# Entry
Amino acid sequence: MARAKQLSTVDKVMKYGLDSEVIQAIQAYVVSGKPPSTADRTLMEFYLRSRSTVEDEWRQYDAVLISGATGRTVSARLYEWLTFKLPGGSYTPDFVYVMDNGMIVCVEVKGSKRQTNYRDARAKLRAAASLNPWFLFYEALKERNWSLEHIKPDPDFIKSLILL
# Structure
């Protein structure tokens, strides 16, 4: 919560992708000095949380990069919103975007290909893309600059599962 107090309302909307009404609700609690209700605290933590600094950095550029890659504008950004059931486990993309035309875009954010869980997350991302071709899947990688790779569904993925 300390991060949210230090930025202007415009900066918070740009950085966290929040609706200005959420920002005003947070500011009302800060100004009044009274603690937020349990429901409001849970909602604020959901909007302001990230698990890594790379995910925080991604929030600053995501709308521009996603709209550039898909040719549509972002109408909503959701953090760890969906979980896909996969053979042998599950996969939760870091960000899910609802585009203005209704298309759903899932993005996995990574800081480096040398991260300990990179290969596992990449395999799950490819499996989720192959099993759910009606979604768009991307991997956002920040090594020096941001790169955005579209993960295309593998048409032979289901056949390979059956033949195992």
